[in-house]
Design a protein that fits this description.
Elements lengths: L4 H19 L6 H10 L3 H6 L5 E6 L4 H14 L5 E2 L7 H10 L11 E5 L5 H7 L4 E4 L7 H4 L2 H11 L5 E5 L3 H4 L8 E6 L25 E8 L2 E6 L11 E9 L2 E6 L2 E5 L5 H15 L4 H9 L9 E5 L2 E5 L5 H13 L4 E6 L19 H5 L4 E7 L3 H10 L7 E3 L3 H9 L7 E6 L1 H17 L5 H11 L1
Parallel strand pairs: 1-3, 1-4, 2-3, 4-5, 5-6, 6-9, 13-17, 14-15, 14-17, 15-16
Antiparallel strand pairs: 7-8, 9-10, 10-11, 12-13
């Protein structure tokens, strides 16, 4: 494809803005990408042709960032150089900015492989200009209805946008994702045999009660979480595909998640069985790319979680786990993880309703906070903060958490002080913010950690283990 004057102007403008941001100590790929796309709306198409080893796309509702970073860890262990929107800027502007960063002033790419996290609503625009060689689809859940609309619309958009020649890496246990392999040229499935939390029945919110093919109610023999499990349609025969990559013997051991695939043992330093799917997606993609299990195993083992993905910090008062919450199913899994710790709990929940969080917070009533209510004796306190602090406090009251244990504090610094001001013996602390509160709270926690001369406990432990 011939590069026009618009392309060169867009590229150079993007690189100048990127340099300016770096000089001023700011990070970000969104502004350079925004300006570049304004100058040349086809710039992604021009930049993408340089990646002769392929472009890997990661999309879905939950787990995109963690999956992409797990795969990136494997690629680094394999010695690969690749373009990557690691900061998680997964809209057109952020993706363009990441590609510009990897492109020289002469228009030549610094890598032949790209790994790109793509927001599910952005997939149609992305695939108009870029043909990914491999696409990982994690799962589909309701998320920000005011932005995405109904879930079936999102699923239909993504499915209809993926090129036929793209190799699909699909979650076999999610019927909304598994259907993507029907009539597609090549699909590889990953799944889970069972986890310690798997059940024969489920009262959780499920997005796929009915067959995506004929509309008949799906029959399940096992639920892992949400609609993920072993399913079959009695109407048309649609069923959970047999996974090429199947996780067995899944269990936790001293903060590590262990599992086996084809008799090979793997482990990741992530809490929550939902993160198992992220690891399997990365593992499946890595095998498809031709990497050996030894490289994949080390890449998963040394992985350090990204900001706010079950990230652990050390403070003088004790350790804190920080994790993003953004929709009912994800929140349910975080609650399940907290309950599974089997210790007294101190919790800080921050809810905002800005555009990036989703204006509609009615989803809070779909979260199974009643689980916290049934373990109310273990809860020492719940600090509620953010623009909608009162809303989350009200929801928790109706879920059975004692009003005496609910604390309202709109100041983020004050909220952290309320959480860490006192600690019961063995008490585990969790901070659960929505997106626009994630980084402000993380900065406060990180500053306190640094001022105390401490380091991230999880990162330190994994770094020592990797060197051993």
């Amino acid at each position: 494809m011939k590069r026009t004057w618009r392309f060169w102007l867009a590229l150079w403008a993007g690189k100048i803005i990127t340099m300016g941001l770096l000089v001023t100590g700011k990070k970000g790929t969104t502004l350079p990408g925004k300006i570049a796309n304004w100058i040349d709306p086809q710039i992604m198409r021009h930049l993408s042709v340089a990646y002769t080893d392929g472009i890997i796309m990661v999309t879905g509702t939950n787990g995109k960032t963690t999956t992409a970073n797990l795969l990136a860890s494997i690629l680094r262990q394999a010695g690969k150089v690749f373009a990557f929107n690691q900061a998680g800027a997964n809209l057109v502007t952020g993706i363009t900015g990441a590609l510009i960063q990897n492109t020289g002033w002469n228009g030549l790419s610094q890598a032949s492989l790209a790994l790109l996290e793509v927001d599910e609503a952005t997939v149609p625009k992305f695939c108009e200009q870029v043909s990914p060689s491999l696409a990982i689809v994690t799962n589909f859940f309701r998320d920000q209805l005011d932005r995405y609309g109904e879930l079936d619309t999102t699923v239909r958009m993504v499915k209809g946008s993926l090129p036929k020649e793209t190799v699909l890496v699909l979650n076999a246990d999610d019927p909304l994702v598994a259907q993507f392999g029907t009539n597609h040229n090549q699909a590889i499935y990953y799944g889970v045999e069972r986890t310690p939390d798997s059940q024969g029945d489920s009262q959780e919110t499920r997005e796929a009660r009915f067959c995506p093919g004929c509309g008949t109610a799906l029959d399940y023999t096992l639920f892992h979480y949400g609609q993920l499990g072993i399913f079959k349609c009695s109407g048309c025969g649609f069923h959970r595909p047999e996974p090429e990559i199947l996780a067995k013997d899944v269990h936790l051991d001293e903060g590590l998640m262990l599992f086996q695939v084809d008799e090979v043992a793997f482990r990741i330093a992530l809490q929550g069985y939902y993160n198992l799917y992220n690891a399997l997606a990365a593992l499946t993609a890595a095998r498809e790319l031709g990497f050996k299990d030894k490289v994949i195993e080390k890449g998963l083992r040394v992985f350090i979680p990204q900001a706010g993905r079950m990230e652990r910090f050390s403070l003088p008062e004790g350790d804190i786990t920080l994790t993003l919450v953004k929709n009912p199913t994800g929140f349910d899994q975080v609650i399940q993880t907290m309950i599974g710790v089997d210790r007294p709990l101190g919790i800080l929940i921050g809810i905002n309703d800005l555009a990036a969080d989703g204006r509609d917070i009615s989803w809070l009533w779909d979260v199974n906070f009643e689980r916290l209510g049934t373990h109310e004796a273990r809860i020492q306190k719940v600090v509620c903060t953010g623009l909608r602090a009162e809303d989350i406090a009200l929801r928790l009251k109706y879920a059975g958490v004692s009003v005496e244990k609910l604390i309202l504090e709109h100041s983020l610094t004050g909220a952290l002080k309320m959480l860490t001001g006192s600690r019961a013996e063995g008490e585990a602390w969790f901070i659960l913010p929505t997106y626009t509160l994630l980084f402000p709270l993380r900065e406060i926690v990180e500053d306190r950690q640094k001022s105390a001369g401490l380091s991230n406990s999880g990162a330190k432990e994994r770094g020592e283990e990797a060197r051993a």
